[in-house]
Amino acid sequence: MSQPGPSAITRLIELMAKLPGLGPRSARRAVLTLVKRRERLLVPLAQAMADLAESVSLCSVCGNADVTDPCAICADPKRSKKAICVVQDVADLWALERAAVFAGQYHVLGGVLSPLDGVGPDDLGLPRLVARAHSEEVQEVILALGATVDGQTTAHYVAAELAEAGVRITTLAQGVPVGGELDFLDDGTILAALTARKDV
Amino acid sequence: MTRRTAVLDLTLSHFRSWKRGRIDTGGAPVALHGPNGAGKTNVLEAVSLLAPGRGLRRAPAPEMARKPDEIGWRVAAVVSTPSGEIEIDTRFTPGDSGRGVQIDGKTATQTALGGHVRTVWLTPAMDRLWTEAASDRRRFLDRMVLGFDAHHGDTSIAYEKAMRQRNRLLSEPPWDQNWLDSLEAQLARLGARIARGRAEALAALREAQDTAETSFPRADLAIAGDFAPEIDLDEPDMAETGLAVDLARALAEGRPRDAAAGRTLTGPHRSDLSAIYAAKAMPAAACSTGEQKALLISLCLANARALAGRTGAAPVLLFDEVAAHLDAARRAALYAEIAALGAQAWMTGTGPELFDALGADALRLAVTEEGGVSSLDPT
Ligand SMILES: Nc1ncnc2c1ncn2[C@@H]1O[C@H](COP(=O)(O)OP(=O)(O)OP(=O)(O)O)[C@@H](O)[C@H]1O
Ligand SMILES: [Mg+2]
Ligand SMILES: [Zn+2]
């Protein structure tokens, strides 16, 4: 039951409309722009997307999304190995990198514990985190999880799992509003929350 | 600067029976009179939406859209507060999940609204408060708490969420002890905060009753029911921490029982509110209809006084059909106490004579209805 009109256009509109922040109307506008600027926009965009689709994967060490595995952050010899910052999503990692406030390692859980959504400890790659925390160089694990019930439950759970790892465990301090997720915070707030972190 | 909250100007659009209505109060008390079904309570409901929550009928937002059009609704107001005048616009558009709020033209949360406007209401639906379900009394209590702590609503929502998560986890053996511990730690932390907020609100109310001259009967309130912890308000932070520890332990011990029941059987969602008619040492539920009404009026006035003391602003009072229950002397006493409080009251009644004893500055408005559309009588 497809709409009248060339099917490749309709298909692209339908796909674009699935992106966050885009509805059917803005997807139509975006596709029309692409069609009008075929050489300058559509072709390079298609190429960039094909390249990305070819190469992107989740880093097997930290869970970041990148075109190399390990990701650029894990592979960077200049970054400290002493601290691992645990975040819920890749978006949170990118927010911290944008703010340029942390020069250690990351661990992306890819979610938070939620029985109602069927998300359990096995879905969050926690054994991998525990193994990393046990390595010689790691001295601190920072739990940068949201102040929601699920975020705090997850932080509590991870802290208990790491109790035997012999590392300092800290959480973000004041500054993260209730229910706030890192991606929505401005750089100053992120810095304040990270600087004033406290022991669990 | 006035030490009160007052609605200076109220506009209703497509709100229930009001296609369009505007009341320019200038801050005066408002007495709405008119026949049954004219649209008086609808106005009070609109005012109640200037504070956080679902309003005095607890109606879902779509229900308040004017039938048969149901194109959504809007309530706008200019409100004077001790920190200045603010413009509030709250509206519902079909398809949205709930009502939206703007304060001074900027999108805001309902919690933010709670920092500006507080309302205290009394409606006929509350007449059976002391004899019906504990959940109604908890809601009455929590609404009082919300006036003192605008975050109480968020805390309660988070608590409910944590409880649903725990109930689900308990229903899926084998149990992950660490996971249950982690979840119960949140549940206990939030539950302790709720219990503390309630205890503090009751203390504020008690203080307001102790210090006021009133011709309405005193009610002694206490937390009752399955969860009625002692909370030492001289050391509130310590008390809250201690309560969280106790609650976490009780939750851990109650796992088998709660799993069998399919729900959580301890915590502030199991609390009740008890009231004693002090002069007679009589539980409210055993009091006469008129006595119960008088107790509620007394509590609302005490709540308003306590809020005025704590927040520096007397709340807006919404008294729906309160005057009709009182004899002339009691009515005059009520009006005098409202005036002494300095609060703006919005009141309803079928006849104008109910408001004879109300001060000359009060705005008396006749409400009528024709063809399902309410309007203000120009006379
Ligand atoms: N969504 C709606 N759309 C249109 N009309 C509505 C809607 N909801 C309620 N009404 C109508 O509004 C009318 C006025 O209701 P309201 O409760 O304000 O009356 P009232 O003046 O307080 O009457 P009473 O003296 O009986 O309490 C009622 O007749 C009701 O049917
Ligand atoms: Mg009514
Ligand atoms: Zn990596």
Description:
The complex is a heterodimer of chains A (200) and B (379). Chain A is built from eight helices and seven strands. Chain A has helices spanning 7-16, 24-36, 38-55, 72-75, 90-99, 126-133, 149-161, 187-195; strands spanning 57-58, 65-66, 83-87, 105-108, 140-143, 168-171, 198-199. Chain A is elongated. In chain A, the strands form two sheets. Chain A has a five-stranded mixed sheet. Chain B has 379 residues and is α/β, with parallel strands linked by helices. Chain B folds into two domains: 1-118 and 313-379, P-loop containing nucleotide triphosphate hydrolases (Rossmann fold), CATH 3.40.50.300; 131-288, RecF/RecN/SMC, N-terminal domain (Glutathione S-transferase Yfyf (Class Pi), Chain A, domain 2), CATH 1.20.1050.90. Helices cover 38% and strands 23% of the residues of chain B. In chain B, the strands form three sheets. A six-stranded antiparallel sheet of chain B has the order 2-1-4-5-6-7. In chain B, strands 8-12-13-3-14-15 form a six-stranded mixed sheet, with helices on both faces. A three-stranded antiparallel sheet of chain B has the order 9-10-11. The chains are: A alpha/beta (200), B alpha/beta (379). The A-B interface holds A 113-116, 120-121, 148-150, 152-154, 156-157, 160-161, 178-179 and B 151, 154, 158, 161-162, 164-166, 168-169, 172, 176, 178-179, 181-183, 185-186, 190. The structure holds adenosine-5'-triphosphate, magnesium ion and zinc ion. Zinc ion is lined by residues 59, 61-62, 64, 70-71, 73-74 of chain A. Adenosine-5'-triphosphate binds at residues 16-17, 34, 36-42, 64-67, 348, 350, 372 of chain B.
